[in-house]
Specification:
heterodimer; A: Immunoglobulin-like; elongated; B: mainly alpha; Cytochrome C Oxidase, Chain A; 16 helices
Amino acid sequence: MRVSVVRGLHRVTEYVYLLLTLCSKAHLLEVKFRNVEEMGQRSSTHWCMRLAAHAIGLACLPVAALAAPTDRSLSPTNIFAPVSTPAHSIFGLSLFVLAVTGAIFVIVFTLLLYCVVKFRRRADDDGREPPQVFGSNQVELAWTVIPVLITVVLFMATARVIASIQRAPQPENAIRVIAIGHQFWWEYRYPDLKVVTANELHVPVSDPAHPTPTFITLLSADTDHSFWVPRLAGKTDLIPNHPNSMWIDPQQTGLYLGQCAQYCGTQHAKMLLRVYADSPQEFNRWTEEQNQPALTTAAVSEGQRIFERTACINCHAVTGTVADGRFGPDLTHLMSRETIASGAAPNTPENLRLWIKNPDAIKPGSKMPAMGLSDHELDAVTAYLATLR
Amino acid sequence: MSTDSISIVNADFASRPLVAKLHEWVTTVDHKRLGILYIVYSFVFLIIAGIEALIMRIQLIRPHNDYVSPEVFNQMFTMHGTTMIFFVVMPMLFGFANYLVPLMIGARDMAFPRLNAFSFWMTAFGGILLYFSFLGANGLYGAGNAPDVGWFAYAPLTSQTFSLGHSTDFWTLSLLVSGFGSIGTAINIIATIFCMRCPGMTLAKMPLLAWLNLVMAVLVILAVSPLSAAQVMLIVDRYLGGHFFDTQAGGSAVIWMHFFWIFGHPEVYVLVIPAFAFASEIIPVFSRKAIFGYPVMVAATVCIAFISMSVWAHHMFTIGMNANANTFFVLTTMAIAVPTGIKIFNWLATMWGGKIHFKTPMLFSIAFLFQFLIAGLTGIMLGAAPFNWHLGNSYFVVAHFHYVIVGAILFTTFGAFYYWFPKMSGKMYNETLGKLHFWLFLIGFHLTFDFMHIPGLLGMPRRIYTYEPGRGWDTLNLIVTIGVFFQAAGILVFVANLLWSYFHGETAGSDPWDAWTLEWSTSSPPPAYNFATILEGRSRRPLWDRKHPEDPDWRYE
């Protein structure tokens, strides 16, 4: 009995959803109405429907403007340009919610405008008070019941999307990643692939026919952070002592941007996110490279010696050397990354040198201290780091 | 009649020295003077917090701007938020409640006048304490340091590990101190409304403003208590080795979020219900009609207050609650749209069939209806949890709550300023300047906050002191900043209008709006004792009955 009621409500939700998806494509309706018009049917219902279709279309215009270019031309972080299942589900729900709220807006705004224009005091007003009306049970009941129904529909639609995203099972072949938020950078660990990296997350592209989603466990080493790459999924917070999880399955290769979305301290603004969706071959190659130990050459032994004898190694690790700090990003394959300082600057020798000399020039308030090295030492350390491929 | 006044007290007030006058203001227990003190005090903080907003907007005018450092920017948004909520909007609304509630229910003062004065000075010292942090937050070493943990101060950023010095202590203590003031005022409002109504005025015949302030006061007690408890826990954590929120020692960051938002969401209604109250008085008078559906308006308000106690975790959709919890809070959040919708429809129905006078207070109220409608609809979007996973903590949510706090609350409060200014000062404001203020502020508001939604949809998180170019945010942020200057110009016109009108305005008379509630039956400004004789309330609009003896309201109620 109860199950059938829930199913029935689901069905209603689906119909309303369908109806409003159609409405949001008002130009299609317009064509339909023109046909009706040509047939000479000009009933009042027809005009009302036509008006409503226009209204909804108008309300959806701003959304259409944002949603139209589903590529990254408007913004690389546009929430209306989804390329991953969770983002797609949210996109569908948001169109539905926008259509419903847009329709409500147009109706109520029209009423308000009508009131203001129609019932303004005229120049030839006789100064008498208008008829005093104290209320109407029928009317008030109507505008209680209708919002209740709209609320139920919105709730059902929302509940379905919550379940579809949060209750999605983790398939056997899913890539597992542990993302750890730090002030103000990201650490990524792949427990199955034995890879440790920082700030640039690599995941395989997911073919919808044979999905290879990435399931991310979210941890924090210090304060609260939030993982938000709008084109892949909604945000989920990284909270110390409170492990969270989320999943993504990007269906196109490419670079997806985002940034920390929970205030975490001074440099919250430059805690940027970069997610690379690689083809399976590229991803395998990247994993293999990350598993290689760092190669050191005699040519940069001076830089390596300075690196290992200063405070660098208190925070940074280079696998296979004495450097095993855990407070800052792992530098074993630093040169495989396109950026430094959590996406704040391109990974060029000049920027790297500046970053070691004076981190505040790139990211004021970051936890990386100025090392106080001489120009010669700076050159040597930069040269050493440039060999960490 | 009660418009007669008794010529006693203050006959020689004008001739007394300034110090004596100021002494009277500082020691006053008169609800009207305390009301005005609250309003003036909150207005000073409105200017200060407005300047902080301006500094942030100048910093964000273009990507990679370096007008202020990240440290200063973080202090600015923390101070702006804390000040606006606790030391601008709350005291502003308490000020109006203080001034108006006794007058509207025909009482001569609040139930506890000295508690009233105590509450005001607690609030005042709370604000001063908060701002003293600019000078003294680092203790004796000289350099000041304002709080920079954000206005909801999520743990563990507030722990000793991440927040050195005393800036967080100033934040905590100032809210604790002003919280006691708020609770005192709330108790006072409840006692006044329950015990001090004039003969004949049953609860069902109170003006809506009194009803709504009653509901607000109940919510203050329910909401501020958990906040104060959380502040005490935070102090225990910081100085007595407690581990409530200390995640390094097994504490929970999430429990702070729960404590804060079980305060934070009812707080939204603490702020917006008095705004509803202003609209519910202004719209009928300028439409020349009784409020439509009084019992339903009261019921909807009580209903909003009740539901508002169960929606707090919609501020926490992104913290990784399980699907059941998320679904529950979606349900309660959506449910609150129903009574809110009823209120909007009832205000529209009040205007329907009326004769609308477009005086400045009414203009602000109509803009309020429009903006509150949008704020409610964006609220529904944020209430749909998966959509919230994008919108939460983005600029969209910043635009949404500014639509509520500026678009709804500040607009109706400006309406209330203009509507009751003649009563408080005895002088009429300048209508032309009032309209100029309205249009400047309206344009500025929409430039700023309409365009602020879009960067959120394009992935811009809040609380970032700078942003990367090439994300489609640049032009939008420029427009948002331009709007702020229009708003600032509007505020300047407003201040000029009030000052000029106070000294040179026309005499207003006791009832300039031909209104219907009891405050308009006494002189402007009212004498210290409010009413010379004991009034009688036979209907919800006692002055309508007096003006229309042939067709009094009590026949229908």
